[in-house]
DNA sequence: GTGAAAGCGCTAACAA
DNA sequence: TTGTTAGCGCTTTCAC
């Protein structure tokens, strides 16, 4: 037996209950304008008594303001985006803006759909992962007239503002560090990269920098789906069967790297002397491992935080603000899987 | 240079562009009512040409319908809720409902706030984790008059419908299995449980069932914060220093369990003969480990899926439907850390 | 098959 | 400090 019969309460109900005009009730509930302490308390008491919950739909329509920020990301199930979200939440907690999340599953068509859905709620801003979007998506974003921040990746042309790292450069830096440490027979294991542009850019930067040192990737393999940890084990076993003389494996993310690390330790292989390893992302998980996998911090928290701050700033000062570009500097953490460190 | 000057487009703009009345434009855009193919195409073309995105705020206010389902959960950063969300999304994908997520951080006051915010958007339904809520929260839920499904836990009195497992029983079952396998000196490691009711219930069921077998928990420790994997290592080391003769450790979640498992393997301890281990949740991660930790599937995906299905069914048939209770049966996976299995 | 009028519940702007 | 009036952009209802 739920209370279904009674229509939702309105301002009018509070007004009648308190004997104060709707307008003044509205002011009290929003802490807007001057209201006498007496009236204020009478209204608050009445609202509480009848259990009034404001209708934001009506409020948003009337005020033409929605305190929502659309956040559009590919996934929530790996470790990377939750941390971005934390940064966004922390920044927005200081404002009256609220994040609303949409998930694209790395599919451009889904992104377009989610974006359309989100924009139809007229949010105050949009944060979206990546810098590659369909023409239709870009058009929607531009036409929306609201602040847009693309995050994670700065290698490309943003619609408006952008906060991220250069994944191409991240790949290069890792390659340089590997070469510098004297590794020569280098393998790469990663996700299928048709839709993961950031992984692709890292790989491109990686091979480029190796080429500069006269080295070619000795072997490589790509996966999709499944438990990353398990995939890391399998692929590591595979690649070493195929190419036993590898002395370094670069993984496109930390989870498959950890899978590989655990497998190699089990096999009694000397890490980092016989084989060196590195991943990417700087996930917190690594801290609890027997050996800490070398990795590169992707600045996820900061990216989220700064993106949200840009939105918040734009919302405050309605006037024309120039698009911002923030390029963060990821740093290598050599952990215990890198020779000479 | 963003296009800020031009106000967002309205139905009226599409109407003018296409030479069709606002009303008919509205019908086309919603696929409602009979519209001639000619008119339909003319409208669609016009909408696309000028880049119109409907205003759902206005639509929702006018129609008194919002295709949103509020999902309120404690956290997104562990492995459990993302999987619940996947179940919810999968179920809602077959409807025109959309999930909107709010995060409480396990804090009742935050839950109350988030719930209030969410309800003020007048969603079509609410799914919220746990069955313990403040009186104010319960009152809001009841007063909202919309379908409510509490998830994860069935040990208590729901506001409306509920889908979950009995955590008390889960703890009992694990205790029984441990006793049956002949373990005698049993330790417990878990989170501080003041606010994590489900962990508390598992612990209560666990100690209860042990008591029935004449066994008391030999040692225990609780943590909060930090990397679960690292905490699992530390606490495992600690508890064995204090109580070296333990022959089983029950962890309140898989992540700290894995930390413990990796630590003990490093120490050369024979698992499961010298010490047996078990966690809780059945996270996918376990598959990639050298030894698979014993665990108990918490039916997370199914819980999400069924909860969403209940909401969807309720939204369809407006008429009074009885509150549903669905109690799922978790199963033990003995993995490689349980003697005699 | 199409259009005109009314109003969803709230807030901006102005009046008192 | 408080109240009144007029919409916000759409959908419902009813008329054509």
Automatic annotation (TrEMBL), chains A, B:
Keyword Calcium: no
Swiss-Prot/TrEMBL keywords: DNA-binding, Transcription, Transcription regulation
CDD domains linked to this entry: HTH_LacI, PBP1_GntR
One Pfam family, short name: LacI
Organism in which the protein naturally occurs: Roseovarius albus
Transcription found in the keyword field: yes
Domain HTH lacI-type: 9-63
PANTHER family, per the entry: LACI-RELATED TRANSCRIPTIONAL REPRESSOR (PTHR30146), TRANSCRIPTIONAL REGULATOR (PTHR30146:SF33)
Regions crossing the membrane: none
UniProt-recorded Gene Ontology molecular function terms: DNA-binding transcription factor activity; transcription cis-regulatory region binding
Name of the molecule in the record: HTH-type transcriptional regulator GntR
Classification via InterPro entries: HTH_LacI (IPR000843), Lambda_DNA-bd_dom_sf (IPR010982), Peripla_BP/Lac1_sug-bd_dom (IPR001761), Peripla_BP_I (IPR028082)
């Amino acid at each position: 037996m739920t209370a279904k019969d009674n229509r939702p309460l309105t301002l009018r109900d509070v007004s009648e209950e308190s004997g104060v005009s709707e307008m003044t009730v509205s002011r009290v509930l929003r802490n807007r304008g001057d209201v006498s302490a007496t009236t204020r308390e009478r209204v608050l008491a009445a609202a509480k008594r009848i259990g009034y919950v404001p209708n934001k739909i009506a409020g948003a329509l009337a005020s033409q303001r929605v305190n929502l920020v659309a956040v559009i990301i590919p996934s929530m199930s790996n470790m990377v985006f939750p941390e971005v979200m934390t940064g966004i939440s922390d920044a927005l907690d200081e404002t009256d803006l609220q994040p609303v999340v949409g998930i694209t599953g790395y599919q451009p068509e889904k992104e377009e759909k989610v974006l359309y859905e989100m924009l139809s709620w007229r949010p105050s801003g949009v944060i979206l992962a990546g810098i590659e979007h369909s023409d239709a998506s870009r058009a929607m974003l531009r036409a929306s007239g609201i602040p847009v921040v693309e995050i994670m990746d700065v290698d490309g042309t943003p619609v408006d503002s952008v906060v991220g790292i250069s994944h191409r450069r991240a790949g290069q830096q890792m390659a340089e560090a590997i070469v510098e440490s004297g590794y020569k027979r280098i393998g790469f294991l990663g996700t299928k990269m048709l839709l993961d542009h950031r992984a692709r850019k890292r790989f491109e930067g990686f091979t480029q920098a190796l080429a500069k040192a006269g080295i070619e990737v000795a072997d490589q393999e790509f996966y999709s789906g499944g438990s990353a940890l398990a995939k890391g084990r399998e692929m590591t076993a595979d690649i070493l069967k195929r190419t036993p003389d590898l002395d370094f494996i670069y993984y496109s993310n930390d989870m498959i790297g950890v899978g590989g690390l655990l497998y190699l330790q089990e096999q009694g292989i000397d890490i980092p002397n016989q084989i060196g390893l590195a991943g990417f992302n700087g996930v917190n998980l690594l801290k609890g491992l027997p050996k800490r996998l070398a990795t590169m911090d992707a600045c996820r928290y900061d990216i989220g935080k700064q993106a949200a701050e840009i939105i918040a700033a734009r919302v405050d000062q309605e006037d024309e603000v120039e698009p911002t570009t923030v390029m963060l500097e990821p740093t290598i953490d050599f952990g215990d899987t890198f020779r000479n460190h």
